C-alpha cells in the first residue's frame, strides 16, 4: 500500500479513506536506531547547526525510508522551518503536499484545506466520515487510558504519552493499534494505584530527549497531563470533521492552548508544569506567555538533540519537585 509521510498531526481520515497508510515521521525518527546519527547526517548534508533537531531528523529519516515518496507538509500551524524542509526534500525527489491550519481557526478556510487534501487523494466526504467513525472509536479508548492516568492513578506518565502520541497516525495499522490499546486497558484497569505524591503537567511539543518520565517517577513525581499528546487524540465529542480539527488547539493561537491547559490544571489537580522547549524553535518565545498567564509553578526544560536526560536537567528537576512537595 502507498505510504504517506506526515510531519505533524493532519486529517489522517483523508489518507486512510484513500486506502493509503499515514506514517508519522517524528515517531519513526525518535524510536528508530541511532536518531542522533540522523541529525548529524542532515548537518553533513548542509543543514545548519542552529536548526531544530526534529527538522534535521525528519529530513534524514524521510530520505532513508525509500517507500515514502510523498509527504504532507504543514505550512501553517506547525514548524516555521517546514518550508525549507519541503524544498530540500523536493530536491531529493520527494513529492510534498502542502496543508495549512488557518491561524484564526476560520472554519471555511479549514474546510477548504481539508477538501483540497481530499481532492489530491480522490476521496469524498462519505468515505472520509466512515473512517472518522472508525478512528473515533479507537480515540475513545485512548481517552480512557488518559482518565486512568489522572483520575485513578493506574497509568504511568510515559505510557500516557506513548499511546496518545501514536494517535497521530494510529501506527499505520488502526486495527492492530486498537487491539494493543484494548490489551493495555485490560491490564491498566487492574493495576495497583501509583503512589507518586507530586502531580505534574507536561506542556509543549513531545520531547526529543529520553528518560524524563522515568526519572520523574523515580523521585516521586508523575506526569498526569501531557498537553500536546492529548490533543493528538482529538479529545472532543463531535461528528463534524472540520470542527474536530478546529477544536484541536496546537496549530492555532497560543491563547487557545492556555484555555485548555487552565481547565486541565484544575480538573487534574496539578502541582506544577514542565514546559518543554526545543532548541531553535520559535515556540520558545511562548514560554513568557505561559509564565504570565498560568498560575502554577513552571519549570522550563530545553532539549536540542536526541539524548538521555542530562545531569544538569536532573538537578533542576530535583529542585523543582522538592519545591512543589514543600509547598503542598
From TrEMBL:
Q: Which UniProt keywords apply?
A: Iron, Iron-sulfur, Metal-binding
Which GO terms fall under molecular function for this chain's record? hydro-lyase activity; iron-sulfur cluster binding
Position of the signal peptide: none
The record's section on Pfam families has:
HGD-D (PF06050)
- Superkingdom classification of source: Bacteria
Q: Which cofactor does it need?
A: [4Fe-4S] cluster
Q: Write out the similarity annotation.
A: Belongs to the FldB/FldC dehydratase alpha/beta subunit family.
Q: Which PANTHER family match?
A: 2-HYDROXYACYL-COA DEHYDRATASE, 2-HYDROXYGLUTARYL-COA DEHYDRATASE, D-COMPONENT-RELATED
Please identify the protein, giving its name as recorded.
Answer: Benzoyl-CoA reductase/2-hydroxyglutaryl-CoA dehydratase subunit
Amino acid at each position: 500500500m502507498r505510504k504517506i509521510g506526515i510531519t505533524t498531526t493532519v486529517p489522517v481520515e483523508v489518507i486512510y479513506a484513500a486506502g493509503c497508510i499515514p506514517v508519522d515521521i517524528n515517531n519513526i525518527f525518535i524510536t528508530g536506531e541511532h536518531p542522533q546519527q540522523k541529525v548529524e547526517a542532515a548537518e553533513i548534508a548542509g543543514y545548519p547547526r542552529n536548526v531544530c533537531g526534529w527538522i534535521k531528523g525528519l529530513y534524514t529519516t524521510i530520505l532513508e525510508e525509500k517507500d515514502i515518496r510523498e509527504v504532507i507538509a504543514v505550512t501553517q500551524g506547525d514548524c516555521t522551518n517546514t518550508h525549507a524542509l519541503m524544498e530540500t526534500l523536493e530536491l531529493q525527489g520527494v513529492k510534498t503536499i502542502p496543508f495549512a491550519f488557518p491561524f484564526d481557526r476560520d472554519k471555511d478556510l479549514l474546510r477548504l484545506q481539508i477538501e483540497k487534501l481530499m481532492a489530491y487523494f480522490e476521496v469524498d466526504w462519505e468515505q472520509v466520515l466512515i473512517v472518522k467513525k472508525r478512528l473515533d472509536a479507537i480515540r475513545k479508548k485512548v481517552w480512557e487510558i488518559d482518565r486512568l492516568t489522572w483520575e485513578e492513578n493506574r497509568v504511568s506518565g510515559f505510557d500516557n504519552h506513548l499511546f496518545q502520541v501514536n494517535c497521530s497516525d494510529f501506527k499505520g495499522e488502526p486495527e492492530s493499534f486498537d487491539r494493543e490499546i484494548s490489551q493495555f486497558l485490560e491490564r491498566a484497569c487492574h493495576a495497583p494505584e501509583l503512589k507518586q505524591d507530586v502531580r505534574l503537567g507536561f506542556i509543549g511539543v513531545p520531547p526529543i530527549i529520553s528518560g524524563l518520565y522515568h526519572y520523574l517517577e523515580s523521585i516521586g513525581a508523575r506526569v498526569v497531563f501531557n498537553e500536546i499528546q492529548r490533543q493528538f487524540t482529538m479529545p472532543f465529542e463531535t461528528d463534524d470533521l472540520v470542527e474536530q480539527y478546529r477544536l484541536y488547539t496546537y496549530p492555532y493561537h497560543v491563547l487557545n492552548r492556555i484555555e485548555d491547559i487552565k481547565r486541565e490544571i484544575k480538573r487534574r489537580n496539578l502541582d506544577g508544569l514542565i514546559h518543554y522547549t526545543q532548541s531553535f524553535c520559535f515556540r520558545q518565545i511562548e514560554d513568557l506567555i505561559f509564565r504570565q498567564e498560568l498560575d502554577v509553578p513552571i519549570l522550563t526544560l530545553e532539549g536540542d538533540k536526541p539524548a538521555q536526560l542530562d545531569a544538569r536537567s536532573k538537578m533542576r528537576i530535583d529542585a523543582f519537585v522538592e519545591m512543589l512537595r514543600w509547598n503542598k
